[in-house]
């Protein structure tokens, strides 16, 4: 593999800095999802931690470095999850954290950022305007700007997920699968993969579906997989309504868009970062776009068959399977459930019109 | 501590037998719950695994022993979670698993038991009748009967949760808390604990709330806590509608009831096991009963503020806090979220009348 900006040894070292509450997250097969999807599906769950997303892995690195020898003040632009994580990591180390977000950002995320004691500035525009404003604040006040996906620590933190995936896969190869699916398990709807695909022991996973936003998660996890488990297919998934980085990957040049239109707020960027695209071109095997209806269907499947409340970005992997069952039929796929911060009312609308009456 | 049936060294050894997918489960503070509850709350999440409950820890021990040197056939009575876990553990080891359950058991649990390839026999009565029938089957067919909470492996498996709690607590004592709650965080409703209780760093947990059913979870986790962290208060929580073991604990003798009336299907027993009561008397500091409305309120809080879908038994701890805020004000409490297997329609009714339209 050509060199990316990441280094596997640095990623291994990062694990010694990150609060263990963000590490060693659950990875488990969810057979109840499989009849609907026609393939073996394992979930890497990044929501069972104090900030309900994977972002803490990276902000722990950023905050630790600043606490050691950096400015005590830091600012970032965020759709909500990075800001929440940086507020959490900064609070524990006495840092002065400012988060800039769009006033259209998910309210629950903004509430948590405030609750964690960070300063929150809202801009009257989208995430790209928030990025500009955060850069201005950093410049004017001379404080550290944390740029998601560009700052190497945000990629290295996310990349520790890759180490956990590879280690689990190596263990599975040694010990063998934990048993074949029961016969009833593989009797899915006729139009999806039947018993043939899932009969017998299930091999270690051969594909990882990764939500594609700024690119930190995809380049980080992708780097580790290509370095340590090159046979595993790295597939990035982005909404059709926010396709800039996916289009850039396919055209091998930065493609921007004028606007975004998706419920997946966590991945709704318009201006890919050139250095991130360069890395993505080295580690991603494919980048696909999915429809909003598939994202909603994925959220419903994860709720009904896995008992998981997830934000739209975390359902992108399931959406990709739903849109191309043939590609994954009979395979063993890992999907990283990267966040669960949703607004109750919006979530209720998505998973079912009248779901959960509002309880203010 | 007087000797219970459990032994901490055996529990440590058990961890080497249990599939790692059930071990090292997430333990994290959920500050978004705290303004409502008036105390620091950490969640020990036992639902992010292939069977969505903690029962796999025990069935892994049972199935491993049988696979080594026991009969290849095994039967158990179950409200659904033990049967699902035994089916999973038995399938991977080529065991012939039969589960006996009440025909009134949670349909989703019965569906999973079938999907995992186990034989399922339904009895026209409650869990106690299922227990009788399972014993008859074992006697007639000469196969192994697994009795939840009586069979020491079921207690030892659950007890491994206690080891993880103690180890996390020791680590927290060494490294100190991961930062004080942000000021906004502690500004809860006026009637609950205010800033005073939660200001400043939060100490390691000083109480663990444990759902009380047959008693395996409470005696197992309780044994380890009393052995290794005796200062931690062990509080068992049972529904008012299924109070047999709690009443037995208070009266220090087995008390049975004629019926049960609770949505917490996982803990709805009527006939406590004497040996389990003996252990519970040694390791539990208290046993409390909670109302159905509090269980539902707990499920809603966990959904709305923690993004967790839980079954009623898993909300008992939060229900106990809601019913006695003063007792826990300003303290740091761990609640074990022990299962998430729910029927979609019933769950929607509980968390909000019109929640989620049915999607058959």
How is this structure best described in words?
Two copies of one chain form a homodimer. By secondary structure, the first copy, chain A, is α/β, with parallel strands linked by helices. Chain A is built from 15 helices and ten strands. In chain A, strands 1-2-10-7-8-9 form a six-stranded mixed beta sheet. In chain A, strands 5-4-3-6 form a four-stranded parallel beta sheet, sandwiched between helices. In chain A, helix 3 (56-69) packs across helix 4 (81-91), helix 4 runs parallel beside helix 5 (107-115) and helix 9 packs parallel to helix 11 (274-283). The model of chain A is unreliable at 179-199 and 353-360 (pLDDT under 50). Chains A and B meet through strand 1, helix 4, helix 5, helix 12 and helix 15 of A and strand 1, helix 4, helix 5, helix 12 and helix 15 of B.
In short:
By secondary structure, chain A is an alpha/beta fold.
Task: Record keyword descriptors for this entry.
homodimer; 360 residues; alpha/beta; six-stranded mixed beta sheet; four-stranded parallel beta sheet; 15 helices; globular; disordered C terminus
The SSE order of chain A reads HEHEHEHEHEHEHHEHEHHEHHHEH
Terminal Cα span of chain A? 52 Å
- What integer is the average pLDDT of chain A? 91
Note the overall shape of chain A.
globular
Q: Beta-strand percentage of chain A?
A: 5-15%
- The order of strands across the largest sheet of chain A is 1-2-10-7-8-9
Low-confidence stretches of chain A: 179-199, 353-360
Biggest interface found: A-B, 57 and 58 residues
Considering DSSP H and I runs of 4 or more, what fraction of the residues of chain A is helical?
Answer: 40-55%
Strands of chain A, total number: 10
């Amino acid at each position: 593999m050509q060199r990316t900006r990441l280094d596997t040894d640095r990623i291994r070292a990062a694990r010694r800095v990150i609060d263990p509450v963000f590490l060693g997250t659950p990875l488990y097969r969810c057979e109840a999802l499989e009849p609907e999807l026609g393939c073996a599906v394992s979930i890497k769950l990044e929501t069972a931690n104090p900030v309900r997303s994977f972002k803490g892995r990276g902000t722990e690195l950023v905050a630790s470095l600043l606490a050691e020898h950096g400015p005590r003040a830091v600012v970032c632009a965020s759709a909500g999850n990075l800001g929440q994580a940086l507020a959490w990591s900064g609070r524990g180390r006495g840092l002065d954290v400012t988060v800039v977000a769009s006033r259209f950002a998910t309210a629950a995320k903004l509430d948590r950022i405030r609750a964690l004691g960070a300063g929150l500035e809202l801009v009257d525009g989208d995430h790209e305007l928030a990025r500009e404003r955060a850069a201005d604040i950093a410049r004017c006040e001379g404080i550290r700007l944390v740029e998601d996906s560009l700052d190497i620590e945000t990629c290295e933190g996310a990349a520790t997920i890759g180490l956990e995936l590879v280690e689990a896969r190596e263990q599975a190869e040694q010990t063998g699968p934990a048993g074949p699916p029961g016969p009833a398990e593989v009797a899915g709807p006729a139009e999806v993969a039947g018993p043939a695909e899932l009969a017998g022991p299930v091999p270690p996973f051969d594909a990882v579906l990764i939500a594609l936003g700024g690119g930190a998660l995809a380049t980080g996890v992708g780097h580790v997989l290509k370095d340590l488990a090159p046979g595993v297919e790295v597939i990035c998934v982005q909404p059709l309504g926010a396709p800039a980085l996916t289009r850039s990957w396919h055209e091998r040049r930065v493609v921007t868009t004028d606007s975004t239109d998706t419920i997946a707020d966590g991945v709704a960027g318009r201006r890919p970062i050139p250095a991130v695209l360069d890395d993505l071109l080295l580690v991603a095997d494919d980048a696909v776009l999915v429809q909003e209806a598939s994202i909603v269907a994925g959220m419903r499947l994860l709720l009904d068959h896995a008992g998981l409340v997830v934000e739209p970005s975390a359902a992108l992997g399931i959406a990709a399977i739903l849109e191309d069952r043939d590609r994954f039929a009979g395979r063993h796929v890992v999907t990283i459930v990267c966040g669960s911060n949703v607004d109750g009312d919006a979530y209720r609308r998505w998973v079912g019109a009248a779901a959960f009456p509002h309880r203010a």
